[in-house]
Amino acid sequence: MSKLKAIISNKPFILTLWFGLSLFAVVKGVLVNDGTTHNYSNYIIYKHVYVNLVHQHTIFGTGAEFNLDLNHYGPVFALIIAPFAWLPDKIGVILWVLFNCWVLYKAVMMLPLKQSACLAILLINANSMMGSSGNVQVNPFITALIIFSFVFIRRKQDFWAALAIILGTAIKLYGIVGLAFFFYSDNKVRLILSMLFWSAILFVLPMFISSPAYIIQTYHDWYPDLQLKNAANLVSTRGYVCVMGMISKIFHYRNLPNMAVLLPALLLFFVSLIRVKYWRTIQYQLLTLASVLIFTVIYSTGSEPPTYIIAFIGVGIWLVNQNSPIGVFNWVLFIFALLISSFSNSDVIPRYVRVNYILPYALIALPCLLIWLKIIYEMLTRKFEDEREVSLES
């Protein structure tokens, strides 16, 4: 146990893993190349959201001029990717990945936890971060925005929390889950007005590099694009890695209505928030954050294995929020999640198991589902009054 404490207190070592593994993954993708952009095609899609927006070409569907795959991000994303899009692709993609690593690192370190607990979350997620970086994903940035919305509301900085919520929503819709922390705001009117302000600002800003008519049309085109993407997810072999996908694939239920699973899950989530007297308790708030992060992924039909960086940050927050010593059952849940949800694409899991069971049946979602249900149980039953004097903050 003393060796474990020494490891999670070793900030240089953990940050070397956090940034180093991701840097290795993206550099490998850049160098091991056959003359195409295949190994970082996601970045090329991101870059050309900006390029197409500037030239006022459609950013959705097969009509996109620089189309390698379909883009599904909103026009505001062009402003985020713009500084990288001006650079040569091989430099831009590396800096984009490091930017994602940095912003998620900053978000985790801002959590109301001791530094050692924050570092433990980073250590737990170093492999998931590397997987996301190897796929040049935007998900670490979205995860950071969700955490920022939580942190800023706790700090009574509702204006900036509103920016995180609206920006995340305008990029990938996932950011809307930051509204779950609305209940913890001390100034809900300010939060609402701030969200209206940032909605207007982020709606108008892309017009300065395109045109008002183009942006309005782009938002009009976004909804049908997302509908088509959802339909494609239902038959995808790589995607649909969620609870609905797991049920559909295991039981060969091809026409499972999403709402049949999503509505009971939403009901459970909102029931877990009924203990109003604990709304100001750090442990209860952190469990809410963990629940939101996991929920966002396991109940999204668009989830893929790299998306699980969002959920696994939630798993890390849940684990460090446990009373010491951590019980055997919780350790079993965590190790199960570490193996199946984080390391399932590595050699830690035998290829036969990975190819024939985990991937075809979307079992990556199973451990995170079990932990999410455990979080709901804890939020409904845990005696937080015994923990009020125990500060998790450094």
Structure description:
By secondary structure, this protein is mainly alpha-helical. The chain is built from 18 helices and no strands. The chain has helices at 2-8, 11-31, 41-54, 77-85, 89-109, 115-124, 126-134, 139-154, 158-172, 188-204, 212-233, 243-251, 258-271, 282-298, 308-320, 328-342, 351-358, 365-381. The chain is globular, with a radius of gyration of 21 Å.
Number of helices: 18
Tell me the structural class. mainly alpha
Arithmetic mean pLDDT: 88
Shape: globular
Show the helix and strand layout.
Layout: H1 2-8, H2 11-31, H3 41-54, H4 77-85, H5 89-109, H6 115-124, H7 126-134, H8 139-154, H9 158-172, H10 188-204, H11 212-233, H12 243-251, H13 258-271, H14 282-298, H15 308-320, H16 328-342, H17 351-358, H18 365-381
Entry keywords:
single chain, 0% strand, 394 residues, 18 helices, mainly alpha
Give a concise summary:
This protein is mainly α. It has helices at residues 2-8, 11-31, 41-54, 77-85, 89-109, 115-124, 126-134, 139-154, 158-172, 188-204, 212-233, 243-251, 258-271, 282-298, 308-320, 328-342, 351-358, 365-381. The protein contains 18 helices and no strands.
